[in-house]
Design goal:
The chain contains 10 helices and 10 strands. By secondary structure, the protein is of the alpha/beta class. A 5-stranded parallel β-sheet has the order 1-5-4-2-3. α4 crosses α9.
Length: 277
């Protein structure tokens, strides 16, 4: 299974014994949407709801941090997303949050994980079947296969020589709007480049590919062949950058604490130093 699959491919594969589908939609408060309610109102047949809030590290004061292996295994087992399965993840979020779910699983070495190109929006646009019933779930053992790979800490970032790509919007990157979290100073990591996550997609929500995708990185002088770390507000949309690099055959790391951690730490340099600077 490719790491990016089409709606036509998924429609043909639905019902296969070794295939499972998960809705990993997630929203910010300003979106005014409830991911669980949206799932209940209509989802791809057989899909389970992969609540990303339940996959955030419960021990961390930071939002959306990668869960420890035991928490990941427990959540996956409860959803029936266990060993020996092909897992296709989709979302209906403007943040393209399926990429975050893909990153979490692949960081722990999970094989056969794919993102549905275009997500639920494309599925609906093609008038494909939707379901309102929650599927019967048979818990299935899930094994994290390795210590998480490609995860950068605050200490790593202070010492890094990697190219740093910030996936937030231009205004937040420039420090021209307040941060949503108390105590977080607006701005960005000095030396980082701004590639908003939306730039990696076509207007219909499908991923850019090949030359068009490479051009997104090159537009900010990013050399995809060289070490790269992605960051954002809280590690969610940074996963879009990681998956984009993956589509081009390269590996990128993700700074999981992202600006929620860096911007709140008084010991870190920030550019600009204050709003409007």
């Amino acid at each position: 299974m490719d790491s990016l699959v089409s709606t036509a491919w998924l429609a043909d594969e639905l019902g296969a014994d070794d295939l499972r589908v998960a809705d990993a939609s997630w929203f910010l408060p300003e979106h005014g949407r409830d991911a669980a309610a949206d799932y209940a109102a209509g989802h791809i047949p057989g899909a389970v709801f992969m609540d990303l809030n339940a996959f955030a590290d419960t021990r961390s004061p930071l939002p959306s941090m990668l869960p420890p292996p035991e928490q990941l295994a427990s959540r996956m087992q409860m959803l029936g997303l266990g060993d020996g399965l092909r897992i296709v993840i989709y979302d209906d979020s403007p943040l393209h949050t399926a990429a975050r779910a893909w990153w979490m699983l692949t960081a722990y070495g999970t094989p056969d994980v794919a993102i549905l190109d275009g997500g639920l929006s494309k599925w609906k646009a093609e008038k494909r079947l939707l379901d309102r019933h929650t599927p019967d779930i048979r818990p299935r053992h899930f094994t994290p296969r390795q210590a998480p790979q490609g995860v950068r800490t605050l200490a790593d970032m202070k010492a890094t020589r990697d190219q740093i790509v910030d996936a937030r919007g231009p205004s937040r990157f420039a420090g021209l709007e307040p941060e949503p979290r108390p105590g977080v100073i607006p701005g960005h990591i000095p030396g980082s480049r701004n590639l908003p996550y939306a730039d990696f997609f076509h207007p219909d929500g499908t991923w850019k590919r090949d030359i068009t995708l490479r051009a997104v990185f090159e537009s900010e002088g990013i050399e995809i062949e060289h070490p790269l770390t992605a960051t954002c507000g809280s590690g969610i949309t940074a996963a879009v950058v990681v998956f984009a690099a993956h589509l081009l055959g390269h590996t990128a790391a993700l700074y999981d604490g992202s600006w929620a951690e860096w911007g709140a730490d008084p010991s870190t340099p920030k550019a600009p130093k204050s709003m409007g600077a």
